[in-house]
């Protein structure tokens, strides 16, 4: 694929980036049709891990809600605002605008990755919330209460939309850094949103876990597509990229990143 040059105009660069974003979205939605045995094995492991985690959803939610009075307001406010669609898209628009005007290819590529991934994850979580109709913790129901295809906001818990947006941007940005501590710092800031949602009692542990898994899977898929098609002069070598693996035992589920 022919890449843009530094001599290209801002309009040409914007057109090129828009094309890559659309191709990234197409790739992420059609990728499941090309899954192999290992991909279905991973899906099965994720499903089993979420099922195991669901056994402590009620106790876990009750624990976080009890801690809310001791959580600083600034933490909760930051989590709510950063995970909102308005702030999310304003932040990415600013990031892309800066990269476009300065013709910084790495920033443009990062923003295209975020746009493609967030469009995909956004549609997935919006459809899933309505389809599953899972109740939110603070409504007095058990975590097993579902009202399929419900239009009521209190039954739009699974998965966490704030987590999806936050972790999509967090993972996309963290992938652009080689330094381990830079990655740790970025993921730490990104985790504020999902954790704040647990304290607020608006999501269960499995809501946050699934939102995180969806974000990581989609971002990795789109990023690999952009890398393989050589859409941008990627300065981060493949060997330096973070590798994520799902790990679960009994009623515990975790995501391990290998730098």
Description:
The protein is mainly α. It has one domain. It is 63% helix and 5% strand. The chain has ten helices and two strands. It has helices at residues 10-30, 37-54, 57-67, 73-82, 85-101, 105-132, 161-174, 180-190, 192-199, 205-228; strands at 243-249, 252-258. Helix 1 packs parallel to helix 6 and helix 4 packs across helix 9 (192-199). The longest helix has 28 residues, at 105-132. It starts with 9 loop residues before the first helix and ends with a strand.
Brief digest:
The protein is about 65% helix and about 5% strand. The chain has one domain (about 10-259). The two termini are about 30 Å apart.
Number of helices: 10
User: Tell me about the biggest sheet?
Assistant: 2 strands, antiparallel
Mean pLDDT: 88
Indicate the low-confidence ranges by residue numbers.
235-240
Going across the biggest sheet, name each strand in turn. Answer: 1-2
Tell the overall outline.
globular
- Give me the secondary-structure category: mainly alpha
Query: Helix coverage percent of residues?
Result: 55-70%
Q: How many distinct folded domains?
A: 1
| CA distance, first residue to last residue | 29 Å
Write down the Rg. 19 Å
Strand content: 5-15%
Order of helix and strand elements from N to C terminus: HHHHHHHHHHEE
Number of strands: 2
Pfam families: PAP2
Organism: Flavivirga spongiicola
InterPro entries: PAP2/HPO, PAP2/HPO_sf
Protein name: Phosphatase PAP2 family protein
């Amino acid at each position: 694929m022919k890449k843009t040059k530094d001599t290209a105009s801002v309009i040409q660069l914007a057109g090129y980036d828009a094309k890559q974003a659309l191709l990234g979205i197409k790739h992420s939605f059609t990728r499941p049709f090309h899954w192999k045995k290992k991909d279905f094995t991973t899906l099965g492991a994720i499903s089993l891990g979420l099922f195991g985690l669901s056994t402590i959803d009620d106790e876990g939610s009750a624990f976080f809600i009890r801690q809310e009075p001791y959580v600083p307001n600034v933490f909760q406010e930051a989590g709510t605002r950063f995970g909102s669609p308005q702030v999310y898209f304003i932040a990415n628009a600013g990031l892309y605008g800066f990269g476009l005007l300065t013709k910084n290819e790495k920033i443009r590529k990062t923003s295209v990755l975020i746009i493609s991934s967030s469009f995909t994850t956004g549609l997935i979580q919006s459809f899933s919330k309505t389809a599953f109709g899972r109740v939110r913790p603070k409504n007095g129901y058990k975590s097993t209460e579902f009202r399929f295809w419900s239009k009521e906001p209190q039954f739009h818990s699974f998965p966490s939309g704030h987590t999806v947006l936050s972790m999509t941007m967090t993972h996309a940005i963290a992938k652009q850094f080689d330094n381990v501590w830079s990655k740790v710092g970025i993921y730490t800031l990104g985790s504020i949103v999902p954790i704040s949602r647990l304290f607020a009692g608006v999501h269960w542990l499995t809501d946050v876990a699934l939102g995180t898994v969806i974000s990581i899977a989609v971002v990795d898929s789109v990023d690999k597509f952009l890398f393989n098609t050589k859409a941008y002069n990627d300065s981060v070598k493949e060997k330096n990229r973070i590798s994520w693996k799902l790990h679960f035992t009994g009623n515990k589920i975790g995501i391990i990143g290998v730098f």
